[in-house]
Design goal:
- By secondary structure, this protein is mainly α.
- The chain contains four helices and no strands.
- Helix 2 packs across helix 4.
- It is globular and about 30 Å long.
- The termini are far apart.
- The model has no long low-confidence stretch (mean pLDDT 81).
- It catalyses: RNA(n) + a ribonucleoside 5'-triphosphate = RNA(n+1) + diphosphate.
- GO terms for molecular function: DNA binding; DNA-directed RNA polymerase activity.
- Its EC number is 2.7.7.6.
Length: 64
């Protein structure tokens, strides 16, 4: 699985926001050693980005 560049180009929201969500998800995946990582040849960032872009995981920005 490669990084979802097409989805990034077509994304109309805040790119910084979705990048932060993908980074946080990549960290989570690497910490729990998700079996889906093995299916993705160990590429955590591309897996996390795909999950965020396809809404497999949801994110929200918390107000401080």
């Amino acid at each position: 699985m490669i990084f979802p560049l097409e989805q990034l180009i077509e994304f109309s929201g805040n790119v910084y926001e979705i990048t932060c969500a993908a980074v946080r998800r990549a960290y989570q995946l690497s910490m729990v050693r998700d079996p889906e990582i093995a299916e993705n040849d160990g590429k955590v960032v591309s897996l996390a980005a795909r999950q965020v872009f396809t809404n497999q995981v949801e994110y929200k920005i918390e107000e401080q």
